[in-house]
Amino acid sequence: MRGLRTAEILKLQRSGNAKRLRQTKKNYAKTDAYIHLTYSDRWGVIKKVADTVANWGKARLFAECIDKVHFDPVWAGKTAEEQAFEQVISRFQQFLTSAGPGGDSLGMIVHDNNESVAMKHTELMRKYYETGTLWTSVDKIVETPLFVDSSLTRMVQVADLCAYAIRRYLENDEVDLFRRIFARADRLSSGKTVGVRHFTSNGCVCEVCSTH
Ligand SMILES: [Zn+2]
After folding, report:
1. Ligand 1 (ion): which residues have CB within 5 A?
2. Does 2 have pLDDT greater than 70?
3. Distance from residue 142's CA to the centre of ligand 1 (Å)
4. How far is the CA of 198 from the centre of ligand 1 (A)?
5. How far apart are CA 192 and CA 180, in angstroms?
6. 18 alpha carbon to ligand 1 midpoint, in Å?
7. Which tens digit of pLDDT belongs to each residue from 100-148?
């Protein structure tokens, strides 16, 4: 890995493409801590984390996956990001009610910190707290999300891994990681998956749609 990276940087230095050189160095800087691992070592670690998640009996996965080709923000009256947030909050709230499998508990949203998203999602949470989402009132979730630095917070990294696995399945049909973590999607006792939804064209036969 180190050899490949050095070769690519040297090639860009010789080409005189300063912009691409800067971006390439920036991209590689994020992998400094992993450079000693081979590609298969890295995959091995990721799969181990996914298997660990799969075996957390009490963990539940909630996700909204929107195919933007099929999403009309004018018709929906909101952006895809807002709809995704609202859906995840609504499903988590339902999970936490006495009728839901979470059994009358209280919940908190822990969110990767990003200034513009932090402001927006805090405002949305306050609005849901006062008037509910389109689907439910929100009285089981703390009104202000807790924003954390994801590089210091392992559970947010685990959530990122789950998002990555779902995205790679829906966009590239990669089933390996997806099947490991999809086992934790919130389900009714009938087996119907309610925690994860794929918003796309009618008639999608993916594993998310066919169990929803
Ligand atoms: Zn689908």
Report:
1. 198, 204, 206, 208-209
2. no
3. 31
4. 5
5. 17
6. 42
7. 676 788 999 999 998 889 999 999 999 999 999 988 899 999 888 999 9
Give the type of residue at 76. Answer: A
Question: What size, in residues, is the chain?
Answer: 212
- Residue 67 has which token pair? 């195919």
Output the CA 77–ligand 1 centroid distance in Å: 23
User: How does the average pLDDT of the chain come out, rounded?
Assistant: 90
How much distance in Å is there from the Cα of 147 to the middle of ligand 1? 30
Distance CA 138, CA 179 (A): 31
- Give the integer Cα–Cα distance in Å for 151 and 149: 5
The Å distance, Cα 185 to ligand 1 centre, comes to 14
DSSP 8-state secondary structure symbol assigned to residue 141: B
Q: Which long-range contacts (CB under 8 A, 24 or more apart) does 190-197 make?
A: 194/91, 194/94, 195/60, 195/61, 195/62, 195/63, 195/91, 195/95, 196/61, 196/62, 196/63, 196/64, 196/65, 196/166, 197/63, 197/64, 197/65, 197/87
